[in-house]
Model the fold of this input.
Amino acid sequence: MATVTNRIAKAVALCAALYGARRYYRNWGATKAECQMILPGDTSVANPAVQTTEAVFIDAPAAAVWPLLMQVGERVRRARLPRGLTVAVAEVVPDKDLILSVGRAGGHRKAVWSFHIQPHWEDRVRVLTRARIALRRPGEVFAVELLRPAIALGSRALLLGVKRRVERRIPSVLPHG
Done:
């Protein structure tokens, strides 16, 4: 009996910790205004059960960031998803927006994952990524919420990887030292 109670206590503690961390990882690096703004692709999934927005500054012009985001789009589009889901490039606005949709062939979109480049001066951009997921069954929502920390870490790693690769290619204008 003690082990059952102990397992229940651990499960409740894990859920409480995930719920507490949820606000942080759900909109990692994004401002409140960025989380609330309407971005291209948002209307593809009306009334999502889950919406996340993550962001990072990159010290480079949009033209330097765009090719790496397109590589991300190509990799994701070729990914195999479970349960007959497919990923397709829904919309491309060069040097600005990449919108990927997830759904079944001939069916409605279950999710949209978008990347947005917002210039800040000539040599700096803000890259936002947004996921909107239309889950309708409580089990789906629960499963996604349990997986969100891992998904958030993956998205964050992707954004920071793009940032590192781009900034490594762009020579610094300011002298160091």
